[in-house]
Fold each of these.
Amino acid sequence: MNVTRTSNLGTFGIAVAPEQKKYWIEIQLIDEQKKPVANMPYMADNHPSLGDEKPASFTGVSDSNGIIRIEELTLRTLFLKIEAQPLADEMEKRPLGPGPRRSAYERKMSPIGVDEETGCIVYYTVIGDLCNKAPKMECWDEQYKKFNKTEWVKYKNKKIGDDKSKIIPQYPEFHFPDPLFPGLGIDIIHFNQKIFIEICPFRSWKLLLHNTKDYSIVNAYNQGLMANLTYEDSNYFFKFFDSFRDLTSVPSWVNGYQTYHALVIDVPFREGYKGAVFLDTAEFLKDQPELDRKVIIKEEVEGKLQIRLLDSADTQLFYFYSDEQVVVAWRGSQEFDDWLSDFTFRPIRTSSRIENSKIPQQMVPEGFVHKGFWDAFRLAKDVFKMEFEHLFSSINKTPSVKKSLYICGHSLGGALSLIHATDLKKSTPVLYTYGMPRVFTLSAIKYLEGITHYRHVNDADLVTFVPPEAQMDNNLYDLFGTFVGFLTSVTQLINSKVNRGEKDECYLHHGDIVIFFKAEQHYTRLEPTLDIDGGVHRKALVMNAIFSMAKFYLVPALNSEAYSQAEELQKKNTALFPPNANPQQDSMINPMHHLMGDRYLPFLSNQLIELIDPAKPMERKRYRQKFINKINPYSGPGKACEDERQRNLLFNAMQEKLSVTLEISKKAEGGSDALERFRSLQTDESDEL
């Protein structure tokens, strides 16, 4: 019985009230796949009715079925907390459940649901809703603080009570929505029944990438998405990077009318990306007005000190890293200075310095590199020396575990990516580039044969034809500047078409080509021609193209009989896939083919969708089939050009062989789930490419 003292006249009497009714609750901790979360130490406070009374506290451990049963509760909110470290360690092991993700906003506005099978109440939580404190977490964010002073800070200036010196760490908001860790409040209306607490796994997204010499279309798409991301500013990049820790949806890029989702796997949180760095030389030099956007580079060439002034300071790149993976992406041609780099054709020797040594070395022992591209690379490396040293240490942090290094870039970014891959050749980078120009000359290309590099070309992309495949060096660059040197280079180009030698240090492409080839089919027939008076004079043999065309995704490096047949066929007239060069296309050179976000990325995305979901109706498949139906067998006007017809049929066979490029992803841990997740996110935007 409860005893209460009361008085109307100033003297105290004793009133006797009945004992307050007690309540119970049974809680089952489960993950998103409805599996129990067992052996979790917990503590719970049942707040009393009077403010000066101490809450009733309960402690224990969830049983083998994840069940916590608490009795002797008063009719007040129950606040449940779980020991942080065991919970975090356990939920890192749990994979994400199937189905759509619940956003942080949905969890906040609608945190409670009903289990369809049992009818029990379900509380949807993340580990931060339950933790009694922050679990021990590696200081993955230290590099943000160190290298991105204006973009990201490690701590929020939130105060606790009157202690002005205590600052709350900023943990990932999705998993830790309240840094004060108040615990999960369970409402009294859910007493005297069983409830579920569904805990979102403590996981992080990570790009699905494969460290292999074989071609992977998943690598092509994900690295293409990163190459495209370089054209955004630093704020967009860090927002994208933060989405790796937000399980609401997968990281994505939106171009205004279509969303491109990254192909990601979910990994334990500690295995996710630990830091990211965004570097922009133009932004850096804005903060250094005394430099007037110019940088002085000192280097030793053949034992002599050379000092050069770089006045086109506009190079951007980013990188992010985990314990197993480093991803580097370089931005392509966007500003006038970038195009100036593209068209500074002069080849020069590369030089760099061995770490901790005064001895200069050649990045490549023979041959030359495009001066504009080399200057842009050296500019970034000299301005951001500390960041490049950190990148190098991130790649080689643990000698016992070799990290996978992925480098990518579009256009000028592809050129800088190749130079960077050359600089990091010992780290065996996996390089994927898109619409890149030529960078190195003949002798240098031979030295780079061991680098895994797939070079994507969208049909007759103009930029892939510069600088010309010729020996372009001349002293007039030094005497009269870039413009006169360029004009002389053009003269050298014309001369090389007539007098080119086998050992000339001409510019060549590096890497295995992957080409998005728009194929035509021609036919010949006799057609009447008119004389001057308008009368029929004679018939002439005329070549025309049939109206239908098809665009194929061709990877010559694949070990397939169709590819070798096509190459043999084309040897009769021109090499289809000549090494270190562009193939001869059916289309005219077109600068509009060069756009990354509007040409390369959509074609990559649509090809990936086609391979993941073969039953999906797509315009691209309909166009190809219509084209093949017209030429096999050929029944149109005139006589088909037979070599070209056989080539196109083999192109179609090559296209059908592309499914093998998806096998490595299907076999990878979490790969099948990543492919299915990507398939489920696709909408029906136009794929007429």
Note: Confidence is low (pLDDT under 50) at residues 143-168, 336-342.
Amino acid sequence: MEQNNKQAVRTWPFFLLGLVFVLLSGLYGAIAALDAAAHFKDNLLFVLYELLFPASVITALFAALLWSRKSNRMYRAYAFSAMVLGVLYLAVMPGLSAPDELSHYSTAYRISSTMLFEDPLIRPAGLTAVRASDYPLEDMNGVKTPEIPDDTEEIPEVLGNPVKQTTYRAVKDWEKRYAFSTKPVASPIPDVKTTPVFYLPQAIGFSIARVLGLGAVGLLFLGKFLNLCCYVALTALAVRTTPIGKSWFAAVGLLPMSLHLAASLSYDAGLIGTVFLFTALVFKLAYGTEEIRARELIALCALAALFGPCKLVYAPVILLALLIPARVFGGFGKKLLCFLILLLSLVAAVLAVNANVLEAYFFPAAAEQAGNVSADMSHAGFTASELFSHPFFTLRMLLNSFSARLLNWGAEMIGMRLGNLDPLLGASGLQTLLFALGLVALTVADSTGEKSYVLVPGSKAAWQDDDEAEEVEAEEVEAAGGATEADTATTGEVPTAATPAEPEGEVNTEAALSALSEQETAGEVLTAATTEHIAEAAEMLRETREEEASQEALADEETFGPHYMEVREPGRFARFYALLIGCISFFGILFAMLLAWTSRDALWIEGVQGRYFLPLLPLFLFGLQSKALQSGLPFKRLVPYGFVILNLCVGIRIFALAVLRV
């Protein structure tokens, strides 16, 4: 009790400090909203802030309540935090503001039309078909309403790209300006050629909006909201599944860039969630279970088949499965077989989806002749054979990129530039530094020495074997009983039920107790010493049998039923191996962008964005764990809570800057 009080006294100032941060940020946002409302003569801006600020304070209070509890159900606190913060980013950055969101919008719209049994294309042009009332969302040519050519703008704008004070007014008055129309018109936005699975939540949201007759704003909201729900479900399941490092997944899932992508139409939301869940499931099999089940192997194969074709650079993550001990599979041979099944599922999915892309990378001449070169590859100035044949040039480009762009990649990964790499909207420099320090704090070991336990489900096969054994034993007893009855009928004697397995001491004690009982029944007088001796023997016999029964029950529970086991601690080799896998994917991203995006006259690798490294971040946090630095502070709860507070401050900052932007 005293230790808990010390822990409470030591941590409550951090939760109180978080509320103070939100209040100070709220004061800054209030000044900006009042200034914008007075300058632009639009009271809507301050009315929206009157909704934003109280919601932020309430969220901070609930987050303090959830994250302050010492509980193994961290996934509940995470799910609440991620969902509320995702809605916050959806509100302060409306429209098509996320990176490449126009292309994701076009792809989701095409899949939605297929779901509704409508022609997804305008023929013979082959462009994506959208409703006339949805076309103004992607205004690229200045014509806001295709049916009314006079409704034009001097500067073409896409809603929410960039986010500014007119964006919020446009969202509110959208239905007044643009009449609802289901007439199909051609969209000039190219779609994304990748696995359609990661667009299903957005497409379902679009389909619901179209069936209900909602306008463009409702269509966007439902698409983004269902994508956010999918992201929260996948990442929260990862936090629940992993027996180690729950705070790693929670903290990375609560970074501003992660939440911004989740609250958009980007497929990165599903991509991050599936890689997280795959990594968490491997950690569970490696450190928190005793045997693999068929459904867990199927889940690994399905997850690898999902994220592999979407971005091939994350394919090395499946090598993490080699960390699972052979005894979990039932032997080294079975482990090798399961890994081959996992590898084949990944290869089959990649070839089914990315055959044209791989051909364009390694055989550009043949791909160009066949028309398989995508629009992105038109920027490429190198081929794979050139890069492999000039290793020093490739090394020089890598070193130049590290020296010029490494810090920018880290800041972008955290969320210093949200939107389409908007330099104004995102986390400030101080907020970005605090996020980075929080990630570093997660590599500090816990000096309290508390052990973690995980609930391991029982084996269904073991239960069946146990039932069969009981049936066989019952049959043997019944047969023995029949034989005994036959002997009794023949000889007229009643056989004794002697058990050879019983120790000699127990048999003698039982015989003495039986004799004592007969003497007491006959009324004979017993001496006190004899009575005490028999009583001690009876007590010892009872304790022995209770201990044997408890051990037998515990053995049955551990063998056949669910039980708690201590989480195995990863070794140095496992951490180094995970770090190596993360580095392979990291350099794979750089090589892919050097091959597919960088021009010949570039000084460093072009097209690399920090958000590409988010799925790999838990691996790096796992690999950097060390006992060299230890602390008694509960960083696994304080860091995610701190990220919730910082995200609230970032959301207020984005709104405050956007309403002052012309």
Note: The first strand starts at residue 121 and ends at 122.
